[in-house]
Amino acid sequence: MAAARKDLLKKVYNMVPPMLESFHKGQLGRVGVIGGSEDYTGAPYFSAMASAKLGCDMSHVICEPGAAAVIKTYSPNLMVHPIMRQSKNAGASETASSISAQVVDMLSRLHVIVIGPGLGRDELMQDTCAQVVAEARRQGVPFVLDADGLFLAQTRPELVDGCKECILTPNVVEFARLAKAKGLDVNDGEPADLCAKLSKAFGGVTIIQKGPADYISNGEHTLVSDGEGGLKRSGGQGDTLTGTLATLLAYRKAYHDGIWDHDGSMSRSETLALAAYGGSAITRECSRLAFLDKGRALQASDLTEHVHTAFLNTVGERKETPQL
Ligand SMILES: NC(=O)C1=CN([C@@H]2O[C@H](COP(=O)(O)OP(=O)(O)OC[C@H]3O[C@@H](n4cnc5c(N)ncnc54)[C@H](O)[C@@H]3O)[C@@H](O)[C@H]2O)[C@@H](O)CC1
Ligand SMILES: Nc1ncnc2c1ncn2[C@@H]1O[C@H](COP(=O)(O)OP(=O)(O)OP(=O)(O)O)[C@@H](O)[C@H]1O
Ligand SMILES: [Mg+2]
């Protein structure tokens, strides 16, 4: 393991809470994934499940009623809330304000939200999420924008400009769309510099540009996460990333809230970068393990099954936790 990677993962370890008998339900993470629509039920499931498998106590999915009925059949462990509405299914009194108000009601019980997996680009879904993002930001609830959630950053950049409590996770194509929205030329420079430029253009928002290597930048500092992954590029692997990021952001909150004894020496900006790096490293390791297991047959759900081992192989279990 290269020295820089080892060093970074050791710091991620320091941010991960031990598992103590004194903790109560919810202290190790309450995550909400907003997405899931008529067309896509897998994406929010993979995201929420990855968060749970990384150790989050409570993983919620907030989605359309049609998607909710389906997602509930995938796993009884997830809490699924049929709050969101696509325009064509909305009643006369259901507006972005009335729907987002129900999601906002849940915010005080959530540590982190992920917006976008399987969300779609329907106008009412997008408007609802825009209002949720604005309120999450006001309340200081960290959020991850991915997939159709990135369409918000592309079309309404003011929602995220300058936000220091969020992570954007574009793939190559989504990165190019965001760059275009900010007037940047993706052919002008090395990937690490481009990621830093885009982050700066968003006022220092943390960006993970996914690809053969993941570039992570807040405009000031750029990390490269290039651990070996698998060779199958099936859809849905990005959802394991957003779920792992969500749990690490919940752990980050636990770290800053001081729910266990530690020296508290890491700043919020450092721990945000560590959550981003840790999520990327764990996801790539999941992909590597799943590919070893399944080869060409690998599907997104195979990553889900390797989240725990990937955590043990990269970050490692806390020494205080009894080893199984
Ligand atoms: N099982 C599921 O429910 C899944 C749902 N998904 C959802 O599907 C919706 C649309 O997501 P898409 O990712 O298709 O987004 P887009 O509809 O924006 O399409 C992006 C396109 O870029 C292509 N692409 C991706 N990486 C590339 C690269 N490195 N080089 C060149 N082309 C590349 C893809 O093949 C895709 O055609 C989202 O809501 C997403 O969450 C996907 O995450 C896949 C799995
Ligand atoms: N060429 C590659 N080599 C190794 N890992 C990769 C490669 N491309 C992507 N990844 C990894 O796969 C994960 C998902 O990235 P990807 O670019 O597939 O996202 P995505 O297109 O948004 O996925 P999704 O289908 O879930 O929407 C990331 O953790 C990334 O590090
Ligand atoms: Mg994606």
TrEMBL record:
Domain of life: Eukaryota
Localization per record: Cytoplasm
Record GO biological process: metabolite repair; nicotinamide nucleotide metabolic process
Signal peptide segment: none
Keyword terms: ATP-binding, Cytoplasm, Lyase, NAD, NADP, Nucleotide-binding, Phosphoprotein
TM helices/strands, residue ranges: none
Keyword 4Fe-4S: no
Binding site for (6S)-NADPHX: G118, N171, V172, V173, E174, F175, A176, R177, D239
Its biological purpose: Catalyzes the dehydration of the S-form of NAD(P)HX at the expense of ATP, which is converted to ADP. Together with NAD(P)HX epimerase, which catalyzes the epimerization of the S- and R-forms, the enzyme allows the repair of both epimers of NAD(P)HX, a damaged form of NAD(P)H that is a result of enzymatic or heat-dependent hydration.
Entry's family note: Belongs to the NnrD/CARKD family.
HAMAP family named in the record: NADHX_dehydratase (MF_01965)
Annotated protein name in UniProt: ATP-dependent (S)-NAD(P)H-hydrate dehydratase
Species of origin: Epicoccum nigrum
